[in-house]
Amino acid sequence: ILSSLLLDAWAKASPSVAPALVSTGLRNLGNTCYLNAQIECAFHIPKVRDTILSPPAPVSPKEEEDPISTSAESENEESDEEVIDLDEEKKDEEVKDVAKEVPVVESQGLLALRHVFQEMKHAIHSQEGPISPRVLTSTLGIPVLEQQDSQEFWKLLLPALKLPALTKLYTGTFDDYIVALDGSKREKRREEEFLDLSLDVSPDGKSSVLSSLQKMFGQPELLSVAEGVGWRPEKGADKVDAHKGSQIHTKGLPSILQLHLKRFNYDWNRDVMEKLNDPVIFPLELDMSDVLADECSSEESINKPAPENVLYDLQSIIIHMGEFGVGHYYAYVRPNVNSDAWYRFNDDIVTPVSFDEVIADATGGPVKVCEVVPKQRGLFGRIKRIFESPSFGYGGRSSNAYVLQYVKRSDIPELFYNQE
Question: Is this model's pTM higher than 0.70 or not?
Protein backbone atom coordinates (compact mmCIF):
# COMPACT_ATOMS: atom_id res chain seq x y z
CA ILE A 1 0.00 0.00 0.00
CA LEU A 2 2.79 2.41 0.94
CA SER A 3 4.64 1.76 -2.31
CA SER A 4 1.54 2.31 -4.45
CA LEU A 5 0.75 5.54 -2.62
CA LEU A 6 4.27 6.82 -3.25
CA LEU A 7 4.12 5.90 -6.92
CA ASP A 8 0.72 7.60 -7.26
CA ALA A 9 2.11 10.73 -5.59
CA TRP A 10 5.04 10.67 -8.01
CA ALA A 11 2.79 10.37 -11.06
CA LYS A 12 0.65 13.31 -9.94
CA ALA A 13 3.68 15.47 -9.16
CA SER A 14 5.39 14.77 -12.47
CA PRO A 15 3.06 13.30 -15.11
CA SER A 16 5.56 13.78 -17.94
CA VAL A 17 8.35 11.83 -16.25
CA ALA A 18 8.46 8.04 -16.00
CA PRO A 19 8.02 6.92 -12.37
CA ALA A 20 11.27 6.26 -10.50
CA LEU A 21 11.74 3.62 -7.84
CA VAL A 22 10.87 5.01 -4.40
CA SER A 23 12.06 3.00 -1.41
CA THR A 24 9.58 1.85 1.22
CA GLY A 25 12.09 2.68 3.96
CA LEU A 26 14.58 0.91 6.22
CA ARG A 27 14.10 -0.26 9.77
CA ASN A 28 16.21 1.33 12.49
CA LEU A 29 17.89 -1.51 14.38
CA GLY A 30 18.71 0.69 17.36
CA ASN A 31 21.03 3.48 16.25
CA THR A 32 21.46 2.67 12.56
CA CYS A 33 19.78 5.83 11.25
CA TYR A 34 23.16 7.11 9.97
CA LEU A 35 23.48 3.99 7.81
CA ASN A 36 19.88 4.11 6.58
CA ALA A 37 20.24 7.72 5.45
CA GLN A 38 23.31 7.04 3.29
CA ILE A 39 21.78 3.89 1.78
CA GLU A 40 18.66 5.78 0.74
CA CYS A 41 20.78 8.46 -0.98
CA ALA A 42 22.72 5.82 -2.92
CA PHE A 43 19.80 3.51 -3.74
CA HIS A 44 17.89 6.26 -5.56
CA ILE A 45 20.61 6.79 -8.17
CA PRO A 46 19.92 4.04 -10.76
CA LYS A 47 23.57 3.78 -11.85
CA VAL A 48 24.72 3.28 -8.26
CA ARG A 49 21.90 0.83 -7.57
CA ASP A 50 22.60 -1.27 -10.68
CA THR A 51 26.37 -1.23 -10.10
CA ILE A 52 25.81 -2.75 -6.66
CA LEU A 53 23.15 -5.20 -7.84
CA SER A 54 25.08 -6.48 -10.88
CA PRO A 55 27.75 -9.15 -10.25
CA PRO A 56 30.97 -8.35 -12.14
CA ALA A 57 31.92 -10.37 -15.21
CA PRO A 58 34.53 -13.16 -14.84
CA VAL A 59 38.15 -12.15 -15.38
CA SER A 60 40.33 -13.78 -18.02
CA PRO A 61 44.07 -14.31 -17.53
CA LYS A 62 46.22 -11.76 -19.30
CA GLU A 63 47.22 -12.96 -22.70
CA GLU A 64 50.94 -13.50 -23.01
CA GLU A 65 52.78 -12.44 -26.12
CA ASP A 66 53.61 -15.31 -28.47
CA PRO A 67 57.35 -15.04 -29.28
CA ILE A 68 57.02 -17.29 -32.34
CA SER A 69 54.25 -15.14 -33.79
CA THR A 70 56.18 -11.95 -33.05
CA SER A 71 59.26 -13.30 -34.74
CA ALA A 72 57.25 -14.39 -37.75
CA GLU A 73 55.77 -10.95 -38.19
CA SER A 74 59.11 -9.17 -37.90
CA GLU A 75 61.03 -11.44 -40.24
CA ASN A 76 58.14 -12.19 -42.62
CA GLU A 77 59.69 -15.50 -43.62
CA GLU A 78 56.83 -17.92 -42.88
CA SER A 79 54.71 -19.44 -45.58
CA ASP A 80 50.93 -19.07 -45.83
CA GLU A 81 50.52 -22.59 -44.50
CA GLU A 82 52.61 -21.76 -41.40
CA VAL A 83 50.54 -18.61 -40.72
CA ILE A 84 47.36 -20.68 -40.76
CA ASP A 85 48.88 -23.03 -38.23
CA LEU A 86 49.71 -20.13 -35.96
CA ASP A 87 46.15 -18.82 -36.24
CA GLU A 88 44.85 -22.21 -35.21
CA GLU A 89 47.21 -22.21 -32.24
CA LYS A 90 45.89 -18.79 -31.21
CA LYS A 91 42.31 -20.05 -31.37
CA ASP A 92 43.26 -22.99 -29.18
CA GLU A 93 44.81 -20.61 -26.69
CA GLU A 94 41.68 -18.44 -26.69
CA VAL A 95 39.56 -21.50 -25.90
CA LYS A 96 41.90 -22.34 -23.05
CA ASP A 97 41.69 -18.75 -21.74
CA VAL A 98 37.90 -18.92 -21.71
CA ALA A 99 38.12 -22.16 -19.80
CA LYS A 100 40.44 -20.49 -17.31
CA GLU A 101 38.01 -17.61 -16.63
CA VAL A 102 37.32 -17.30 -12.95
CA PRO A 103 34.61 -15.32 -11.18
CA VAL A 104 35.66 -12.20 -9.30
CA VAL A 105 35.87 -12.74 -5.56
CA GLU A 106 33.57 -10.10 -4.12
CA SER A 107 33.86 -8.62 -0.66
CA GLN A 108 31.46 -9.79 2.02
CA GLY A 109 30.39 -6.18 2.55
CA LEU A 110 29.40 -5.83 -1.11
CA LEU A 111 27.42 -9.09 -1.03
CA ALA A 112 25.59 -7.90 2.08
CA LEU A 113 24.80 -4.47 0.60
CA ARG A 114 23.60 -6.16 -2.60
CA HIS A 115 21.23 -8.26 -0.50
CA VAL A 116 19.84 -5.13 1.15
CA PHE A 117 19.33 -3.46 -2.25
CA GLN A 118 17.62 -6.58 -3.59
CA GLU A 119 15.28 -6.60 -0.61
CA MET A 120 14.54 -2.89 -1.06
CA LYS A 121 13.74 -3.37 -4.74
CA HIS A 122 11.56 -6.40 -4.02
CA ALA A 123 9.67 -4.49 -1.31
CA ILE A 124 8.81 -1.74 -3.81
CA HIS A 125 7.43 -4.10 -6.45
CA SER A 126 5.63 -6.34 -3.96
CA GLN A 127 4.21 -3.32 -2.08
CA GLU A 128 5.70 -4.50 1.18
CA GLY A 129 6.76 -2.31 4.07
CA PRO A 130 10.27 -1.28 5.16
CA ILE A 131 13.04 -3.88 5.18
CA SER A 132 15.81 -4.56 7.66
CA PRO A 133 19.50 -3.84 6.93
CA ARG A 134 20.59 -6.39 9.55
CA VAL A 135 22.48 -8.57 7.08
CA LEU A 136 24.73 -5.58 6.34
CA THR A 137 25.33 -4.67 9.99
CA SER A 138 25.99 -8.31 10.91
CA THR A 139 28.41 -8.86 8.02
CA LEU A 140 30.39 -5.69 8.75
CA GLY A 141 30.29 -6.22 12.52
CA ILE A 142 28.50 -2.93 13.12
CA PRO A 143 27.17 -2.54 16.69
CA VAL A 144 23.58 -1.51 16.02
CA LEU A 145 23.13 0.25 19.36
CA GLU A 146 26.13 2.53 18.82
CA GLN A 147 25.63 5.83 17.01
CA GLN A 148 28.10 6.54 14.20
CA ASP A 149 28.86 9.52 11.97
CA SER A 150 26.98 9.19 8.67
CA GLN A 151 29.64 10.92 6.59
CA GLU A 152 32.49 8.85 8.05
CA PHE A 153 30.51 5.64 7.59
CA TRP A 154 30.04 6.11 3.84
CA LYS A 155 33.62 7.30 3.35
CA LEU A 156 34.89 4.11 5.00
CA LEU A 157 32.34 1.80 3.41
CA LEU A 158 33.08 2.67 -0.22
CA PRO A 159 36.72 1.41 -0.22
CA ALA A 160 35.72 -1.61 1.92
CA LEU A 161 33.26 -2.75 -0.76
CA LYS A 162 36.18 -3.17 -3.19
CA LEU A 163 34.03 -2.22 -6.17
CA PRO A 164 36.06 0.19 -8.34
CA ALA A 165 33.16 0.96 -10.66
CA LEU A 166 31.19 2.29 -7.69
CA THR A 167 34.04 4.17 -6.01
CA LYS A 168 34.89 5.85 -9.32
CA LEU A 169 31.47 7.58 -9.37
CA TYR A 170 32.26 9.38 -6.10
CA THR A 171 35.98 9.98 -6.67
CA GLY A 172 37.31 13.39 -7.63
CA THR A 173 40.76 14.97 -7.63
CA PHE A 174 42.31 18.32 -6.73
CA ASP A 175 45.89 19.64 -6.65
CA ASP A 176 47.77 20.78 -3.57
CA TYR A 177 50.48 23.24 -4.59
CA ILE A 178 53.27 25.46 -3.33
CA VAL A 179 54.59 28.13 -5.73
CA ALA A 180 57.64 30.30 -5.10
CA LEU A 181 57.06 34.05 -5.39
CA ASP A 182 60.64 34.95 -6.33
CA GLY A 183 60.07 34.63 -10.07
CA SER A 184 61.99 31.34 -10.32
CA LYS A 185 58.81 29.40 -11.26
CA ARG A 186 59.76 26.73 -8.73
CA GLU A 187 56.72 24.86 -7.53
CA LYS A 188 55.54 21.61 -6.02
CA ARG A 189 52.23 19.99 -6.96
CA ARG A 190 50.55 16.84 -5.77
CA GLU A 191 47.26 15.37 -6.95
CA GLU A 192 44.90 14.24 -4.19
CA GLU A 193 41.84 12.04 -4.54
CA PHE A 194 38.67 12.65 -2.53
CA LEU A 195 35.35 10.91 -1.93
CA ASP A 196 33.80 14.03 -0.42
CA LEU A 197 34.75 17.60 0.41
CA SER A 198 34.45 18.91 3.98
CA LEU A 199 33.32 22.53 4.19
CA ASP A 200 33.63 24.88 7.16
CA VAL A 201 30.49 26.19 8.86
CA SER A 202 30.71 29.72 10.23
CA PRO A 203 29.14 30.42 13.64
CA ASP A 204 28.02 33.84 12.42
CA GLY A 205 25.29 32.28 10.29
CA LYS A 206 26.68 33.64 7.02
CA SER A 207 28.00 30.41 5.50
CA SER A 208 27.20 29.24 2.00
CA VAL A 209 28.33 26.21 0.05
CA LEU A 210 29.69 28.32 -2.79
CA SER A 211 31.68 30.69 -0.55
CA SER A 212 33.15 27.73 1.36
CA LEU A 213 34.23 26.06 -1.87
CA GLN A 214 35.76 29.30 -3.12
CA LYS A 215 37.65 29.63 0.13
CA MET A 216 38.90 26.05 -0.10
CA PHE A 217 40.08 26.35 -3.71
CA GLY A 218 40.58 30.08 -4.01
CA GLN A 219 42.86 32.48 -2.14
CA PRO A 220 46.13 30.72 -1.24
CA GLU A 221 47.98 30.99 2.06
CA LEU A 222 51.12 33.16 2.12
CA LEU A 223 54.24 31.43 3.43
CA SER A 224 56.36 34.43 4.44
CA VAL A 225 60.07 34.33 5.22
CA ALA A 226 59.66 37.42 7.38
CA GLU A 227 57.16 35.55 9.55
CA GLY A 228 59.39 32.49 9.80
CA VAL A 229 57.24 30.22 7.65
CA GLY A 230 58.94 30.54 4.26
CA TRP A 231 59.19 27.61 1.83
CA ARG A 232 62.45 25.78 1.14
CA PRO A 233 62.14 24.57 -2.49
CA GLU A 234 64.89 21.98 -2.16
CA LYS A 235 67.34 20.72 0.40
CA GLY A 236 70.03 23.29 1.18
CA ALA A 237 68.24 26.12 -0.62
CA ASP A 238 67.29 29.37 1.06
CA LYS A 239 63.69 29.80 2.13
CA VAL A 240 61.54 31.97 -0.11
CA ASP A 241 58.10 33.53 0.07
CA ALA A 242 55.53 31.23 -1.49
CA HIS A 243 51.85 30.64 -1.99
CA LYS A 244 50.34 27.42 -0.65
CA GLY A 245 46.87 26.30 -1.66
CA SER A 246 44.61 23.89 -3.49
CA GLN A 247 43.08 23.97 -6.95
CA ILE A 248 40.37 21.90 -8.55
CA HIS A 249 39.93 21.58 -12.30
CA THR A 250 37.04 20.47 -14.47
CA LYS A 251 38.63 17.08 -15.11
CA GLY A 252 38.75 16.48 -11.34
CA LEU A 253 35.00 16.79 -10.77
CA PRO A 254 33.28 13.51 -9.81
CA SER A 255 29.96 12.29 -11.18
CA ILE A 256 28.52 12.32 -7.65
CA LEU A 257 29.72 15.14 -5.40
CA GLN A 258 29.24 14.75 -1.65
CA LEU A 259 29.73 17.90 0.42
CA HIS A 260 30.18 17.39 4.16
CA LEU A 261 29.27 20.37 6.33
CA LYS A 262 31.59 20.47 9.34
CA ARG A 263 28.99 21.22 11.99
CA PHE A 264 30.89 19.54 14.84
CA ASN A 265 33.39 21.99 16.26
CA TYR A 266 35.79 22.02 19.22
CA ASP A 267 35.29 25.02 21.50
CA TRP A 268 38.72 25.82 22.97
CA ASN A 269 37.30 28.21 25.53
CA ARG A 270 34.91 25.67 27.03
CA ASP A 271 36.99 22.58 26.20
CA VAL A 272 34.01 20.78 24.65
CA MET A 273 32.80 19.56 21.27
CA GLU A 274 29.71 21.35 20.09
CA LYS A 275 27.41 21.35 17.11
CA LEU A 276 26.99 24.46 14.97
CA ASN A 277 23.30 24.71 14.08
CA ASP A 278 23.83 27.93 12.16
CA PRO A 279 22.37 28.40 8.66
CA VAL A 280 24.31 27.28 5.59
CA ILE A 281 22.92 28.39 2.25
CA PHE A 282 23.06 25.77 -0.48
CA PRO A 283 21.67 25.94 -4.03
CA LEU A 284 19.43 23.54 -5.91
CA GLU A 285 21.82 24.05 -8.84
CA LEU A 286 25.51 24.35 -7.98
CA ASP A 287 27.65 26.15 -10.55
CA MET A 288 31.32 25.29 -10.03
CA SER A 289 32.59 27.78 -12.64
CA ASP A 290 33.78 30.27 -10.00
CA VAL A 291 35.57 27.52 -8.08
CA LEU A 292 37.46 25.74 -10.88
CA ALA A 293 40.96 26.95 -11.69
CA ASP A 294 40.57 26.36 -15.43
CA GLU A 295 37.13 28.00 -15.64
CA CYS A 296 38.05 31.06 -13.53
CA SER A 297 41.11 31.79 -15.66
CA SER A 298 39.31 31.42 -18.96
CA GLU A 299 38.29 34.73 -20.53
CA GLU A 300 36.02 32.85 -22.95
CA SER A 301 33.84 31.66 -20.05
CA ILE A 302 32.91 35.21 -19.00
CA ASN A 303 29.26 36.10 -19.68
CA LYS A 304 28.63 32.67 -21.18
CA PRO A 305 26.31 29.98 -19.80
CA ALA A 306 28.18 27.42 -17.73
CA PRO A 307 28.73 24.10 -19.52
CA GLU A 308 26.89 21.11 -18.10
CA ASN A 309 30.12 19.42 -16.97
CA VAL A 310 30.58 22.11 -14.28
CA LEU A 311 26.95 22.20 -13.13
CA TYR A 312 25.56 20.03 -10.36
CA ASP A 313 21.96 19.29 -9.38
CA LEU A 314 21.00 18.58 -5.79
CA GLN A 315 19.89 14.95 -5.46
CA SER A 316 19.76 14.29 -1.72
CA ILE A 317 20.49 15.70 1.72
CA ILE A 318 21.37 13.94 4.96
CA ILE A 319 20.00 15.76 7.99
CA HIS A 320 21.44 15.61 11.49
CA MET A 321 19.00 16.40 14.27
CA GLY A 322 20.37 16.87 17.78
CA GLU A 323 23.70 17.80 19.28
CA PHE A 324 27.22 16.33 19.31
CA GLY A 325 27.17 12.72 20.49
CA VAL A 326 23.37 12.59 20.67
CA GLY A 327 21.26 12.85 17.58
CA HIS A 328 19.35 11.32 14.71
CA TYR A 329 19.91 11.13 10.95
CA TYR A 330 17.38 11.06 8.13
CA ALA A 331 17.47 11.95 4.44
CA TYR A 332 15.67 13.99 1.82
CA VAL A 333 15.94 12.44 -1.63
CA ARG A 334 14.90 13.38 -5.14
CA PRO A 335 14.59 10.00 -6.93
CA ASN A 336 14.57 11.72 -10.32
CA VAL A 337 16.60 14.91 -10.63
CA ASN A 338 14.56 15.89 -13.67
CA SER A 339 11.54 16.23 -11.39
CA ASP A 340 10.77 18.36 -8.35
CA ALA A 341 9.33 15.44 -6.34
CA TRP A 342 11.14 15.05 -3.00
CA TYR A 343 10.73 12.45 -0.25
CA ARG A 344 11.78 12.37 3.38
CA PHE A 345 13.23 9.01 4.42
CA ASN A 346 13.13 8.92 8.21
CA ASP A 347 14.05 5.24 8.69
CA ASP A 348 10.78 3.35 8.08
CA ILE A 349 8.67 6.49 7.57
CA VAL A 350 8.58 7.73 3.96
CA THR A 351 6.83 11.02 3.25
CA PRO A 352 6.43 13.06 0.04
CA VAL A 353 7.49 16.67 0.73
CA SER A 354 7.91 19.96 -1.09
CA PHE A 355 11.30 21.53 -1.68
CA ASP A 356 10.26 24.42 0.57
CA GLU A 357 9.94 21.90 3.41
CA VAL A 358 13.38 20.55 2.56
CA ILE A 359 14.91 24.02 2.70
CA ALA A 360 13.18 24.84 5.98
CA ASP A 361 14.57 21.71 7.63
CA ALA A 362 18.01 21.62 6.01
CA THR A 363 19.27 25.20 5.99
CA GLY A 364 19.63 25.49 9.76
CA GLY A 365 18.39 28.23 12.07
CA PRO A 366 14.84 29.61 12.31
CA VAL A 367 12.64 30.41 9.34
CA LYS A 368 9.25 32.04 9.17
CA VAL A 369 6.42 29.59 8.65
CA CYS A 370 5.03 31.82 5.90
CA GLU A 371 8.23 31.17 3.93
CA VAL A 372 7.51 27.46 3.58
CA VAL A 373 3.71 27.24 3.47
CA PRO A 374 1.25 28.96 1.13
CA LYS A 375 0.42 32.48 2.25
CA GLN A 376 -3.10 33.05 3.49
CA ARG A 377 -4.92 35.70 1.48
CA GLY A 378 -6.90 38.66 2.77
CA LEU A 379 -6.64 41.03 5.71
CA PHE A 380 -6.40 38.24 8.28
CA GLY A 381 -3.50 36.71 6.41
CA ARG A 382 -1.60 40.01 6.30
CA ILE A 383 -2.14 40.61 10.03
CA LYS A 384 -1.03 37.05 10.81
CA ARG A 385 2.21 37.45 8.85
CA ILE A 386 3.08 40.65 10.73
CA PHE A 387 3.03 38.79 14.04
CA GLU A 388 4.38 35.52 12.64
CA SER A 389 7.18 34.25 14.87
CA PRO A 390 10.14 32.36 13.41
CA SER A 391 9.73 28.61 13.43
CA PHE A 392 11.79 25.59 12.39
CA GLY A 393 11.54 22.74 9.94
CA TYR A 394 10.45 19.14 10.48
CA GLY A 395 13.31 18.24 12.83
CA GLY A 396 13.09 21.34 15.01
CA ARG A 397 15.71 23.74 16.30
CA SER A 398 18.69 21.41 15.96
CA SER A 399 17.98 19.83 12.53
CA ASN A 400 20.08 20.88 9.55
CA ALA A 401 21.96 19.58 6.54
CA TYR A 402 25.04 17.52 7.34
CA VAL A 403 25.79 16.01 3.92
CA LEU A 404 24.70 17.40 0.54
CA GLN A 405 24.81 15.07 -2.46
CA TYR A 406 24.92 16.57 -5.96
CA VAL A 407 25.05 14.87 -9.37
CA LYS A 408 26.92 16.29 -12.33
CA ARG A 409 24.42 17.46 -14.94
CA SER A 410 26.42 16.16 -17.90
CA ASP A 411 26.41 12.69 -16.30
CA ILE A 412 22.68 12.58 -15.50
CA PRO A 413 21.84 10.52 -18.62
CA GLU A 414 24.31 7.89 -17.41
CA LEU A 415 23.36 8.05 -13.73
CA PHE A 416 19.57 8.11 -14.23
CA TYR A 417 19.34 6.12 -17.43
CA ASN A 418 16.78 3.62 -16.17
CA GLN A 419 13.79 5.07 -14.39
CA GLU A 420 11.65 2.05 -13.60
Answer: yes
